[in-house]
Amino acid sequence: MSFPASDSSSSNSPAHALAAIGWDDAWAAEFAPYEAQGLLPGRVVRVDRGQCDVVTAQGTVRADTAFVTPHDPLRVICTGDWAAVEPAGNPRYVKAYLPRRTAFVRSTSSQRSEGQILAANVDHAVIAVSLAVELDLGRIERFLALAWESGAQPLVVLTKADLVPDPVVLAHLVQDVETTAPGVQVLTVCSLTGEGTDVLAAVVSGGTSVLLGVSGAGKSTLANALLGAEVMEVQAARETDGKGRHTTTTRNLLALPGGGVLIDTPGLRGVGLWDAEAGVGQVFSEIEDHAADCRFHDCAHVAEPGCAVLAAVESGALAQRRLESYRKLLRENQRIVAKTDARLRSELRRDWRLKSAEGRANHAAKRGGRL
Ligand SMILES: Nc1nc2c(ncn2[C@@H]2O[C@H](COP(=O)(O)OP(=O)(O)OP(=O)(O)O)[C@@H](O)[C@H]2O)c(=O)[nH]1
Ligand SMILES: [Zn+2]
């Protein structure tokens, strides 16, 4: 099916006005039925207290979210969604939103087992990692799994490169992260001098990006470097009273001067995985590659004969740390999913058997016995 080309030379054209915040022909095509109903397209900037801010061709409008707040928390409208808004009314309502291309979800920090939708339609997940502290590869792996699971393409940005003046050391650090993140671009930036930010700006110029990383990773500073203005609050001093720190609480969607859109999601510090098994597989793609050569199709890479993963660890091709990380993430992910999914219980029992087999194998190895 084809749709009439939009007149991009007219500043009144919604296509023109919304292109800067990610509108494209495919969105326009999907929106056509809503347009026929006289609804306006717009992108959700923030959602709060039953209402949301939506950027439309006529500017930012406040709209009621009653129609797009179903019981399933993952289906609640969120920042980044493309909404179909009533052209007028008091209140005016968001009637629907377009199917998401990608969705960022995390498990809630509470014991409740429901996921939380953080952002929709994100193309690039920029994982900020500070070079001011020792690299935590396991933590990077968690962020990568979360990113892959969302459908966005991850990118690791090592921030505060000025704190690692030795280029050889810096190259080694980059290499460590590259090994941890197959299929992922790794950049270094110094937001103070602006070094490297041009490369990042070019990568994020196409599509919508989100900044992930623990507190202090340099996300706000990076956002400012990309935006070329001090729009985001940067904390100059760290509170050390242990009572937690004041952080930015807005979740904004901003058009970048170099092209692209930035969604700022502060507070993504305690990253939990939410049903991210596919994401875990992608983070550890080299392990899954080895696993293809295991003798048994359902090999758990613990003590099975003909296990290609264990052979890779033995030969040094695969780091033991990676395999442990992989198992840990898979287990953590399973625990979260199992909270809501009783069907997984039988598989958890299988996992428990594997763990006990693992324990026995370690025990035998310690005593010098063969498996
Ligand atoms: N030396 C150096 N310091 C930096 C650089 N970028 C950021 N910083 C400092 O690192 C600290 C944390 O930076 P933020 O941008 O606030 O970190 P954040 O990830 O946004 O932190 P939260 O808002 O708590 O999530 C600030 O004191 C910055 O000044 C850099 O390139 N070099
Ligand atoms: Zn195996």
UniProtKB/TrEMBL annotation:
<dbReference type="InterPro" id="IPR027417">
    <property type="entry name" value="P-loop_NTPase"/>
</dbReference>
<feature type="binding site">
    <location>
        <begin position="159"/>
        <end position="162"/>
    </location>
    <ligand>
        <name>GTP</name>
    </ligand>
</feature>
<feature type="domain" description="CP-type G">
    <location>
        <begin position="112"/>
        <end position="271"/>
    </location>
</feature>
<feature type="binding site">
    <location>
        <begin position="213"/>
        <end position="221"/>
    </location>
    <ligand>
        <name>GTP</name>
    </ligand>
</feature>
<feature type="binding site">
    <location>
        <position position="294"/>
    </location>
    <ligand>
        <name>Zn(2+)</name>
    </ligand>
</feature>
<keyword id="KW-0862">Zinc</keyword>
<keyword id="KW-0547">Nucleotide-binding</keyword>
<keyword id="KW-0378">Hydrolase</keyword>
<comment type="similarity">
    <text>Belongs to the TRAFAC class YlqF/YawG GTPase family. RsgA subfamily.</text>
</comment>
<keyword id="KW-0694">RNA-binding</keyword>
<feature type="binding site">
    <location>
        <position position="299"/>
    </location>
    <ligand>
        <name>Zn(2+)</name>
    </ligand>
</feature>
<comment type="function">
    <text>One of several proteins that assist in the late maturation steps of the functional core of the 30S ribosomal subunit. Helps release RbfA from mature subunits. May play a role in the assembly of ribosomal proteins into the subunit. Circularly permuted GTPase that catalyzes slow GTP hydrolysis, GTPase activity is stimulated by the 30S ribosomal subunit.</text>
</comment>
<keyword id="KW-0690">Ribosome biogenesis</keyword>
<feature type="binding site">
    <location>
        <position position="307"/>
    </location>
    <ligand>
        <name>Zn(2+)</name>
    </ligand>
</feature>
<dbReference type="InterPro" id="IPR010914">
    <property type="entry name" value="RsgA_GTPase_dom"/>
</dbReference>
<feature type="binding site">
    <location>
        <position position="301"/>
    </location>
    <ligand>
        <name>Zn(2+)</name>
    </ligand>
</feature>
<dbReference type="Pfam" id="PF03193">
    <property type="entry name" value="RsgA_GTPase"/>
</dbReference>
<keyword id="KW-0479">Metal-binding</keyword>
<protein>
    <recommendedName>
        <fullName>Small ribosomal subunit biogenesis GTPase RsgA</fullName>
        <ecNumber>3.6.1.-</ecNumber>
    </recommendedName>
</protein>
<dbReference type="InterPro" id="IPR030378">
    <property type="entry name" value="G_CP_dom"/>
</dbReference>
<keyword id="KW-0699">rRNA-binding</keyword>
<comment type="subunit">
    <text>Monomer. Associates with 30S ribosomal subunit, binds 16S rRNA.</text>
</comment>
<keyword id="KW-0342">GTP-binding</keyword>
<feature type="domain" description="EngC GTPase">
    <location>
        <begin position="120"/>
        <end position="269"/>
    </location>
</feature>
<keyword id="KW-0963">Cytoplasm</keyword>
<dbReference type="InterPro" id="IPR004881">
    <property type="entry name" value="Ribosome_biogen_GTPase_RsgA"/>
</dbReference>
